[in-house]
Amino acid sequence: MSARTNKPHEIVERALELSRADGCVVIADEHSTANLRWAGNALTTNGVTRGRSLTVVATVDGKEGTASGVVSRSAVTPDDLEPLVRAAEAAARGAGPAEDAQPLVTGVPEAPDFTDAPAETSSAVFADFAPALGEAFARARAGGRELYGFANHELVSTYLGTSTGLRLRHDQPTGTLELNAKSPDRTRSAWAGRSTRDFKDVDPGVLDAELAVRLGWAERRVDLPAGRYETLLPPTAVADLLIYQLWSASGRDAAEGRTVFSKPGGGTRVGEKLTDLPLTLRSDPNEPGLESAPFVVAHSSGGDQSVFDNGLPVGSTEWVSGGVLKNLTTTRHTAGLTGLPVATAGGNLILDGGQDRSLDDMVASTERGLLLTCLWYIREVDPATLLLTGLTRDGVYLVENGQVTGQVNNFRFNESPVDLLGRATEAGRTEKTLPREWSDWFTRAAMPALRVPDFNMSSVSQGV
């Protein structure tokens, strides 16, 4: 093979040929992005980018065990390959035995499109969206509101090859739309967001109409003190909380007594009932509209991922099944340590099992409570209970006798998502949503709205 090749699958093959280690994993990621940004009802910027990154994992066997070395570089050219491979090998030889060492994965059929060119996005992805956005600007201007926001589309083609014969490929489209509507004096603000694979299923006009209603609600202001309130959490807020729960669901940490999923006296809480609602929290790489990589792609080891698991098939996993904790996240290594089954976190998260009721239906059946828009600045307070703190943002509304009667001040909250599931009294219809807090890292989610009778608003926040 020519050392001058520049196609991603050939880059992978060439790096594997250059390897002198006992084992080698090569991951080539081809990135392309397209974006639009706007402010004050007018487009401000747009752009398209391209990029490549390459990760080489070298494994070296020794008397005390197998060591690994990982080196990643961006903008890799053919001339960079041998120095990159040698650097990974040197890192492995200079490291001690890897705690997570396992035999490299074998026996996974080759992807039929492994040698195809990478998929790419372009400004054409906005062909229908951009004109609709212009129409939304005109309606907003006529309605006395200003629209701000951005649309971003990324397409990553991942090529994974190993010295054990794996040749895998996955194309991952990721699209996000975030739209803020503000009153001209900036005293009122409302937010809406959507995730999408191709911008064919998002309509900025629909979002603008939704935001116009919320700005109208905010014309009446009601100040409320901190306290516990019956609260309707929309799907985006539920997603932000449960994604953090998934990130905190380490089987090893639970078995070692360090998390909310640890059983007092030893072991884990797998098998315990977390909620009386018949809810199932799951990940599935084949979920329609939320498709994600069907195999492990690990650029480094740590937490609940291991470079030794690269290429391991990822299937559907239920984390909570019918209200009962069923699985915690594990690698092959940590599964062996804990006795739990191998369970990879995956690239999406779905909560279903609620009633076929919209958020509007839930508002209509609320005597008195709060309706949130989204959560912000979520941080962990106590891992033993998974107590989180954060802020509400862009609209908290008072509901009285089934009607929204005004906007109230923002709050700081203190809640545990595990505890919330146990206290929730109603779950609505599951729908695709964009987690606002984690949208830079996790976009593929489908959640219902939740009703919590005593959500803890711990203090008043002065944010808009």
From TrEMBL:
A GO molecular function held by the record? metallopeptidase activity
- What is this protein called in UniProt? Metallopeptidase TldD-related protein
Query: Where do the Metalloprotease TldD/E C-terminal domain residues begin and end?
Result: 227-458
Q: Name one Pfam family in it.
A: PmbA_TldD_3rd
Gene Ontology biological process terms from the UniProt entry? proteolysis
List the InterPro entries hit by this protein, alphabetically: Metalloprtase-TldD/E_C, TldD/PmbA_N, TldD/PmbA_sf
Which SUPFAM superfamilies does this UniProt record tie to the protein?
Putative modulator of DNA gyrase, PmbA/TldD
Do you know which PANTHER family this protein is assigned to? Answer: CONSERVED PROTEIN, TLDD PROTEIN
Secretion signal, residue range per the UniProt entry: none
Domain of life, per UniProt, equals: Bacteria
